[in-house]
């Protein structure tokens, strides 16, 4: 039996378009190979330095990590904290409160991924 989605109100073409637009916006901000991985590592580890973050995410280059962190900072998911009073200067990255609003989404994606993997294994 297929799972069905039950909507609280009838879906109109306008509502469908709005929903698609919202999903596109979300995917644009957190989509890609690395962004969710970075967000998850930051949420699990708290304050973390660049090299430690890079070691935590297997396969990401320093250049890509730097660019992704800049994008995440622009969108309010990551805060860059510079400790200029230390020698050498220490830069840490932390997840923001706004970033933590993604936690239910990440949990739902994780659960769906596990279910999907089981389903695919059952079919083969």
Automatic annotation (TrEMBL):
Transcription in keyword set: yes
Record organism: Pedobacter zeae
InterPro entries assigned to the protein according to its UniProt record, in alphabetical order: HTH_HxlR, WH-like_DNA-bd_sf, WH_DNA-bd_sf
Keywords: DNA-binding, Transcription, Transcription regulation
Protein name: DNA-binding HxlR family transcriptional regulator
Alphabetized Pfam families for the sequence: HxlR (PF01638)
Organism domain of life: Bacteria
Domain (HTH hxlR-type): residue spans on this chain: 16-121
One of the record's GO molecular function terms: DNA binding
């Amino acid at each position: 039996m297929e799972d069905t989605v039950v909507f609280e109100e009838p879906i109109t073409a306008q509502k469908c378009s709005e929903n698609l637009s919202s999903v596109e916006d979300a995917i644009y901000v957190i989509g890609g190979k690395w962004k969710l991985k970075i967000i998850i590592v930051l949420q699990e580890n708290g304050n973390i330095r660049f090299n430690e973050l890079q070691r935590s995410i297997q396969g990401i280059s320093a250049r890509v990590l730097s660019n992704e962190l800049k994008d995440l900072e622009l969108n309010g998911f990551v805060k860059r904290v510079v400790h200029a009073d230390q020698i050498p200067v220490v830069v840490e990255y932390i997840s923001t409160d706004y970033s933590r609003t993604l936690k239910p989404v990440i949990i739902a994606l994780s659960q769906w991924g596990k279910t999907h993997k089981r389903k695919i294994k059952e079919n083969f």
